[in-house]
Amino acid sequence: MEDFSIIKQQDEILREIEERQPMFTPVQDFSSLEVEYASNPPFQAKIPYLQSKYSGFRRTRGDGNCFYRSFIFSLFEQLIQNKSHLSNPDSPYSQIYSAIKQKVLDSGDILNAAGFLPICYEDFIDMISAKLEMIPTTEISQLEDDFKDKIIADTYVMYTRFIVSAFLRLHADEYSGFVEGYPDIVSFCNSEVDPMNRECEQLQIIAMTEAFQIKAEIEYMDRNDRTETTLMSFPFEYTGPDFKIHMLYRPGHYDILYPNRS
Amino acid sequence: MTTPSRRRLMRDLKKLQTDPIPGISAAPSNDNIMLWNAVIFGPEDTPWEGGTFKLTIEFSEEFPNKAPLVRFQTRMFHPNIYNDGTICLDILQNQWSPIYDVQAILTSIQSLLCDPNPNSPANSEASRIYVDNPREYNRRVREVVEDSWCS
């Protein structure tokens, strides 16, 4: 348990972030990163590499939900952008779309098996299912509007937290060795996954991509002296459709990347 | 209009009515589904036995993504309960999650009664007496229990 004054301080920091940063910016080029890292040579040196692979990025609010929110937003955004392919069974977009719709429908059984209460998760599943059904008639601007509404945006995020938490709880045998500082997976999830605004570490990223069976490629930007960012791909073994979520990691934060059109 | 918070609260209410847990009751106040009154019975075989403790639960439109504000209306004497009735409990603050329903909140508060955490004192007098003088602590708890019958 933490002291009330510490909790109050954390709330104030979070409120400041909420006032200052939108959930997502429009897609922008990397010039703002150049300004941000003007006096940080190791980061500055990697920007040309990013520019060579990606046309731009979308910044997301640094409120601890950035990975979860970027993941679900990018999934929906790519499906909406490619909605003309959704009725073609050979298209990877159509394959991912069918698979995700089925996974969301099946997620009630998984969340129940993980020990969650139906009254606590049913509304989340209903909302995500309805949003998925609407994809063929949705525009990107409507998705952006959804993520300007804190209640709707947080509902998308919380659904992904439920899925990550259930995956870890149901695979406790495999993952309990990775939860440093916690006696078991359940107490790790209670503290690090289930509450909003708790940051995503690599374990949660593995769980998310495994549970959804969606590939995420993350460009890690850090202090090393190389001129390229380091690419990591999750889940470690993936054989599904040719569909990826692209993200940029800078210490403590994730944003969405937009690859160059080939 | 049914908002997500109201829809969820209707589900919570239905569960409390169809699947009640002994020693816990809660319902919305007369004309406001966002403000609930609750009663917790003191756990049996503890100094809290026999007490009927009243609480209010205030939900915002951001519920369940944001925690409700839970407060004792009955005067309490407990290391983790402030004099104004506010409760210092992890799942009501930094560990809140929509995975908890109203029953789970009240059950956690009920267990907190007989399992206080003196390292995180909200009432330093109660905390000190709990650690230094268990007999006196139990006597003070019994006072609160007896008071709860007339409040």
From TrEMBL, chain A:
<keyword id="KW-0788">Thiol protease</keyword>
<dbReference type="GO" id="GO:0071108">
    <property type="term" value="P:protein K48-linked deubiquitination"/>
</dbReference>
<keyword id="KW-0645">Protease</keyword>
<feature type="domain" description="OTU">
    <location>
        <begin position="55"/>
        <end position="260"/>
    </location>
</feature>
<dbReference type="InterPro" id="IPR003323">
    <property type="entry name" value="OTU_dom"/>
</dbReference>
<dbReference type="GO" id="GO:0005634">
    <property type="term" value="C:nucleus"/>
</dbReference>
<dbReference type="InterPro" id="IPR042467">
    <property type="entry name" value="Peptidase_C65_otubain_sub2"/>
</dbReference>
<dbReference type="GO" id="GO:0004843">
    <property type="term" value="F:cysteine-type deubiquitinase activity"/>
</dbReference>
<dbReference type="InterPro" id="IPR019400">
    <property type="entry name" value="Peptidase_C65_otubain"/>
</dbReference>
<dbReference type="InterPro" id="IPR038765">
    <property type="entry name" value="Papain-like_cys_pep_sf"/>
</dbReference>
<dbReference type="GO" id="GO:0043130">
    <property type="term" value="F:ubiquitin binding"/>
</dbReference>
<dbReference type="Pfam" id="PF10275">
    <property type="entry name" value="Peptidase_C65"/>
</dbReference>
<dbReference type="InterPro" id="IPR042468">
    <property type="entry name" value="Peptidase_C65_otubain_sub1"/>
</dbReference>
<protein>
    <recommendedName>
        <fullName>ubiquitinyl hydrolase 1</fullName>
        <ecNumber>3.4.19.12</ecNumber>
    </recommendedName>
</protein>
<dbReference type="GO" id="GO:0006508">
    <property type="term" value="P:proteolysis"/>
</dbReference>
<keyword id="KW-0833">Ubl conjugation pathway</keyword>
<keyword id="KW-0378">Hydrolase</keyword>
UniProtKB/TrEMBL annotation, chain B:
<feature type="domain" description="UBC core">
    <location>
        <begin position="4"/>
        <end position="150"/>
    </location>
</feature>
<dbReference type="InterPro" id="IPR000608">
    <property type="entry name" value="UBC"/>
</dbReference>
<keyword id="KW-0067">ATP-binding</keyword>
<dbReference type="InterPro" id="IPR050113">
    <property type="entry name" value="Ub_conjugating_enzyme"/>
</dbReference>
<keyword id="KW-0808">Transferase</keyword>
<dbReference type="GO" id="GO:0016740">
    <property type="term" value="F:transferase activity"/>
</dbReference>
<protein>
    <recommendedName>
        <fullName>UBC core domain-containing protein</fullName>
    </recommendedName>
</protein>
<keyword id="KW-0833">Ubl conjugation pathway</keyword>
<comment type="similarity">
    <text>Belongs to the ubiquitin-conjugating enzyme family.</text>
</comment>
<dbReference type="InterPro" id="IPR023313">
    <property type="entry name" value="UBQ-conjugating_AS"/>
</dbReference>
<feature type="active site" description="Glycyl thioester intermediate">
    <location>
        <position position="88"/>
    </location>
</feature>
<dbReference type="InterPro" id="IPR016135">
    <property type="entry name" value="UBQ-conjugating_enzyme/RWD"/>
</dbReference>
<dbReference type="GO" id="GO:0005524">
    <property type="term" value="F:ATP binding"/>
</dbReference>
<dbReference type="Pfam" id="PF00179">
    <property type="entry name" value="UQ_con"/>
</dbReference>
<keyword id="KW-0547">Nucleotide-binding</keyword>
